[in-house]
C-alpha cells in the first residue's frame, strides 16, 4: 500500500472539507440543542458525508463513463475547481459561510424553525458545507488516478480518516473556537489553502500531461 498516496489523498480531501471552516455555522445552528443532541447531529452528518463520498468514489468511474468524460478531463476540471477553492481560502474566507450579526441572527431563527435534527445534519452541514462539488470531484479524480486495488483502498482510507477527524473537530468545536480564535482560524485556513493550491496545480498538470504526453 502506498503510504505517500494515502497522505496526499488525505491532505487534499481534508483541505477541501475544511471542517474548521464549518465550526462558526455549526455552533450557530446547534446553539439551542443539548450536548447529546449535538453529538447525534454530528454523527448523522458524518455518516451522510461518508456515504456520499463513498458513493462517488465507488461509482465515479461509471458516472464519468456514462457521460463520456475522459479521466484527463476530470483531472483538469478537478484541478481548476480545487484551485478556485484554494484561492478563496488564501484570500481569507475563514468560514464557508461568512459570519456576521445579520447572518447569525438569520441562522438562529432558521434553526429554531427546524424541529427535526436530521435536517440540520444533512442540510446545510453535510451538503453543501462539508461535501460539495470540490470534494466530489477530488474523490472521483483520485479514484480514476488509480487502477489497482491498493490504490483505491488508499482513497477509501483517506476518506475515512477525513470523516473521523472532522467528527472530532466538530465535537470539540467550542474548545477549538476558544483556543484558536479568529486569527487562528484565518492562519489555519490560509495554510490549508496553500497546500490545496499545490495539489490542485499538480492534478491539473497530470491531466494535461495525459492529453499531450
UniProtKB/TrEMBL annotation:
Keywords: Cell membrane, Membrane, Transmembrane, Transmembrane helix. The keyword Transmembrane applies. It is found in: Cell membrane. Pfam families: MarC. The chain crosses the membrane at residues 6-29, 41-60, 66-87, 120-141, 153-170, 191-212. It comes from the Archaea. The keyword Transmembrane helix applies. Belongs to the UPF0056 (MarC) family. This is UPF0056 membrane protein.
Amino acid at each position: 500500500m502506498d503510504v505517500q498516496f494515502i497522505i496526499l489523498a488525505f491532505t487534499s480531501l481534508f483541505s477541501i472539507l475544511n471542517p474548521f471552516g464549518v465550526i462558526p455555522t455549526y455552533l450557530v445552528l446547534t446553539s439551542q440543542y443539548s450536548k447529546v443532541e449535538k453529538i447525534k447531529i454530528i454523527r448523522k452528518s458524518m455518516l451522510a458525508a461518508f456515504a456520499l463520498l463513498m458513493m462517488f468514489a465507488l461509482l465515479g468511474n461509471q458516472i464519468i463513463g456514462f457521460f463520456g468524460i475522459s479521466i484527463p478531463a476530470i483531472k483538469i476540471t478537478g484541478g481548476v475547481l480545487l484551485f478556485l477553492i484554494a484561492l478563496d481560502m488564501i484570500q481569507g474566507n475563514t468560514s464557508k459561510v461568512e459570519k456576521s450579526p445579520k447572518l447569525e441572527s438569520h441562522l438562529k431563527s432558521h434553526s429554531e424553525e427546524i424541529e427535526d435534527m436530521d435536517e440540520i445534519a444533512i442540510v446545510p452541514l453535510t451538503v453543501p458545507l462539508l461535501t460539495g462539488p470540490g470534494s466530489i470531484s477530488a474523490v472521483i479524480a483520485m479514484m480514476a488516478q488509480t487502477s489497482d486495488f491498493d490504490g483505491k483502498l488508499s482513497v477509501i482510507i483517506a476518506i475515512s480518516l477525513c470523516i473521523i477527524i472532522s467528527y472530532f473537530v466538530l465535537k470539540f468545536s467550542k474548545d477549538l473556537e476558544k483556543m484558536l480564535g479568529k486569527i487562528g482560524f484565518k492562519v489555519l485556513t490560509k495554510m490549508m489553502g496553500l497546500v490545496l493550491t499545490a495539489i490542485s496545480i499538480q492534478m491539473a498538470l497530470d491531466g494535461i500531461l495525459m492529453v499531450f504526453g
